[in-house]
Design a protein that fits this description.
2 copies of one chain form a homodimer.
Chain A (H helix, E strand, L loop, with lengths): L22 H15 L11 E5 L2 E10 L5 E2 L2 E2 H15 L3 E12 L4 H18 L2 E10 L7 E11 L15 E4 L5 H11 L15 H9 L6 E4 L4 H13 L3 E4 L7 H10 L12 E5 L4 H9 L8 E6 L7 E4 L5 E3 L13
Parallel strand pairs in A: 5-6, 10-13
Antiparallel strand pairs in A: 1-2, 2-7, 3-4, 5-7, 8-11, 8-12, 9-11, 10-12, 13-14
Helix pairs in contact in A: 2-3, 5-8
């Protein structure tokens, strides 16, 4: 008798690409998580879940952070773990209120580094006007973790009646991008690969809530918001095209990419449209409110370079197309596998 | 010139004991986390944080689960991650409502195992009457994780006016233990060490909310609740003695430990008082309500073996003493270092 175990196919093992925000991750979510956890609240398919609690609208979101390296130009895993979750609240139109923090530490991790990270979280929380209200610490054996992983769960309150969701997107909506793209992903990659530039490329990691909340005070009819994290601008647009049902067109000329970031993308063979950001978002508003939206965003430091990059068409093909500077048009797909693992 | 780096002292590195619920963990929390994150809500020092939201009392708690092995007699990391967080809500007197789930997967982890874990979470959530409303998945490279780590954050509502807290504990309070102790920790240790017993020792992992909530319906004046997790009964009692300021006495004869668990503890050199549980708690109530509390707990499967094990004295020395079956009295300290790493 043969004792020859046939190796199982790769499809049955978790791949790095399952965590990169692209097609593989969406498949995993659909086939494993949603199939089992199915309920109407989870099916909202948005950055935060919004639910009724005691007559108010509560927003809840959770994220784990496994970024490598832990410290990078423009931030560290601590500030990132606050910004990322605060931004998910902001993207559902919520005002951030409370944050829980769970640490998974690896045996041997320097307490001094932990102190730096904890201080950085506190600073980011103060800037974001969110209170850290509960925490947990676990330790795993040396070689079974990677320094520190952090989970943050955010709770916020929605103080307006808008339904911020891909399903609220309408044909004719203007799409506004809050700033340049690609800096977070490239800052991380450059550090990993030891790339040197004339000046250091800093991550765009930042809290977006103070930039977004004035849109509601000004009664702008915001249809949808999405921050550009794993999978970048291209993936965010594809998710919204998919969930809204409509075709989205964007103009390459309008999308700002810093020269050094563009150069690094060329060296690394990356398309900036797919590179992760941690302080950028897109805003969908009726075309007639685009100018007021732009001026409101530009009042805040994080939105100073906000631009309209495209619009929603009435074609219901769920696709995204890019009009290049030469006038050619190409389809922008969702990120298919893994581009930059452990970018957040 | 010498290039002879002096190794830093162990005190500056994270040790496994920092995650085990004992003295080291309390020091880390005080010196690193609380020092930086200080705020009144975090200072509640309880299993969940209770805060006012829109005229109601919201309870929030977070926990990460890094248990090894992932599957064990009586449960798996999925059911544990639901029970543990539901119990933290129940221990603040809250009715569980919503749960968020964050997965950190290791590259190469079998999708089939993930499916089992996800199904087990869903089953535990249904039994606990809690809805899974948001999730997140990250993937780390092979050798930088250990299969799967799970964070769950729970949100509940407190529907009574009691202030369940160590600070509500009064001299004369009866202390009720909900069942036998030590099964979770020993089930895990036995599997790790390959110990064989006449019958398999199963973890006590279970949701306690359905056992606890009737106490409030019956208007029992519950002063404090605490589930017995890392550090076991001894650590839970010490935490409450510390935070209430009072002396606690318990009677060894009343504490139920299954024969096989006691045998395993002897083989492994463990004291069952310090062994982790995941479905046991202690309840502090006025002595005159002890009988009604016991009968209420015993109506539920998880509380069938509930017993009064001791009481709170008026001495304000923050200590815990155990009266042995021989009549001798000894001080029960907090777990000092690491006893059973990665037990939850």
């Amino acid at each position: 008798m043969f004792n020859c175990p046939i190796p199982k196919s790769d499809h049955e093992k978790i791949l790095l690409g399952h965590g990169s925000g692209g097609v593989l991750m969406h498949q995993l979510i659909e086939k494993v998580f949603k199939k089992t956890f199915e309920n109407p609240l989870l099916a909202q398919n948005h950055d935060s879940t919004v639910l009724d609690f005691s007559g108010a609208r509560l927003a809840v979101t959770t994220d784990s952070y496994v970024i490598h390296p832990l410290f990078f130009p423009g931030g560290d895993i601590g500030s990132l773990a606050v910004h990322g979750t605060v931004n998910d609240l902001a993207m559902s139109g919520a005002k951030p209120l409370y944050l829980t923090v769970g640490f998974i530490l690896e045996e041997g991790f320097a307490v001094e580094d932990l102190r730096r990270i904890v201080q950085s979280m506190q600073n980011a929380a103060e800037e974001s006007n969110i209170q850290i209200i509960a925490g947990d610490t676990k330790v795993v054996d040396r070689g079974k973790g990677d320094g520190v992983f952090i989970n943050t769960t955010g709770i916020g309150v929605v103080e307006h009646a808008l339904n911020i969701s891909p399903r609220s997107v309408q044909p004719g909506d203007a799409i506004i991008l809050s700033g340049d793209i690609g800096r977070h992903g490239i800052a991380i990659m450059a550090q990993r690969e030891g790339l040197q530039f004339e000046s250091t490329i800093e991550s765009d990691s930042a809290s977006l809530s103070a930039m977004i909340l004035p849109l509601f005070q000004k009664k702008i009819d915001v249809h949808c918001l999405r921050d550009l994290t794993r999978g970048g601008l291209a993936t965010a647009l594809n998710e919204i095209a998919q969930d809204s049902g409509f075709h989205i067109t964007i103009e390459e000329n309008e999308i700002r990419v810093e020269e050094q970031v563009r150069g690094a993308c060329e060296i690394l063979g990356l398309d900036p449209l797919y590179v992760a950001n941690e302080g950028r978002c897109i805003v969908f508003v009726p075309a007639e409110q685009a100018a007021e939206t732009l001026s409101t965003l530009r009042e805040h430091q994080q939105g100073r370079q906000a631009v309209a990059i495209g619009c929603v068409s009435e074609i219901q093909d769920k696709r995204v197309t890019l009009k290049s500077s030469l006038g050619t048009v190409r389809i922008i797909d969702m990120l298919s596998g893994e581009q930059l693992p452990r970018i957040c």
